Amino acid sequence: FVGIGLCPDTGGVYMLPRMIGTHRAFDMFVTGRPVDAKEAFQIGLIKEITAKEDLLPKTMAFAKKLTKGPALAYRNMKKLMFESMYKDFETFMAAEEIYLGQCSSSEDFKEGITAFLEKRPADFKGK
Known about the structure:
Elements: H1 12-20, H2 22-31, H3 37-42, H4 52-67, H5 71-86, H6 89-104, H7 107-117
């Protein structure tokens, strides 16, 4: 963008500083320099670097792991992360109380606690 005299669009100036910090984001915005995979990993922009041939198997393994997890808790985590970006702390904490309440009264929570006490993997059902 800077190379053609524009500031970034599509919310980039809003989101990128929240992801990697204002100093790093500002540097990327004003220099317009490319960021390679190694740097993207180091600054937390990506989760990991993998060989091309390992990408699909690793992605599918991660997806499979997620399908076995507590879907309600995942949904509420995503909501809270989103809300934390746009709400003041007090409003956020009120939302956290609601979502935590939903999770703590779920069948998945009961299963998670039971599995922990029985020292076995939890069998979450998304309920």
